[in-house]
């Protein structure tokens, strides 16, 4: 493995220099570790795609938080595999995309395609904690991380449900807390993010930091609520106010790599820029993490 030739693609931009942690993981790959073993040692949001010339296979791996899935299509006739992190890109890249019957049926029934189906035929989704192994003949999915499960249908009382959900949230967050990373919670001051902050404060006392964001000239009530919550739980608090002049550039760059709202794309890109400037190893948590999806 020629580590001098490593290229990293982040937020729509190619970089010749890779983070030290990523280079260390790539060296483990070079020593024979399997991609799923390397992924199990990484924290935060990531996708990992590894092409092995020796084994003639591609491994596509998603993180354990499920914020960014991968979509895999194998064209056996042409010998081409297409891997994207937006299913819309699959439509542009496949020569003759066709609707998948099962994916369309579940999308109409429950408003989204049920894993591992997508809306496109012969296109699989690699969901949270999964690995897709692609050979010239097939795409096979396997788990390298087992999520914390609950036996919801067996709860006999509200009290039992609360106890079980409390245990599940604690166990899930403990698994996602890196030992040397800074736990940073996105804080709106709403119920989801405050619940998350309470758990993180209990699990990592004295280490938790918080962040709230807004747009210049449109600072909303979340800033005040978040300050109250951060002060109550004693977290080091950051406020990221996105300047008006930055919005267009951030949105254009982020939308190239994300199929989310313009506002969400701006915030995501601005946060990534802040993390890069900060330079520390940061584990980001969001209020949605308490929903265990």
Give the SSE map.
Blueprint: E1 8-10, E2 13-15, H1 20-30, H2 35-40, E3 47-52, E4 57-62, E5 70-75, E6 80-84, H3 87-93, H4 101-110, E7 123-126, E8 130-134, E9 139-143, H5 158-176, E10 182-186, H6 191-203, E11 209-215, H7 222-233, E12 236-242, H8 244-255, H9 262-278, E13 282-285
Parallel strand pairs: 10-11, 10-13, 11-12
Antiparallel strand pairs: 1-2, 3-4, 4-8, 5-6, 5-7, 8-9
Helix pairs in contact: 8-9
| Average pLDDT, all residues | 80
SSE string:
EEHHEEEEHHEEEHEHEHEHHE
Percent range of helical residues: 25-40%
The major pleated sheet works out as: 4 strands, antiparallel
Oligomer: single chain
Beta fraction of the residues? 15-25%
The rounded Rg comes to 21 Å
Annotation, overall tally of beta strands: 13
Q: Low-confidence spans: pLDDT under 50, at least 5 residues?
A: none
| Count of individual helical segments | 9
Q: Give the overall silhouette.
A: globular
Which structural category fits the helices and strands? alpha/beta
- C-alpha termini separation: 36 Å
Biggest sheet: strands side by side, in what order? 3-4-8-9
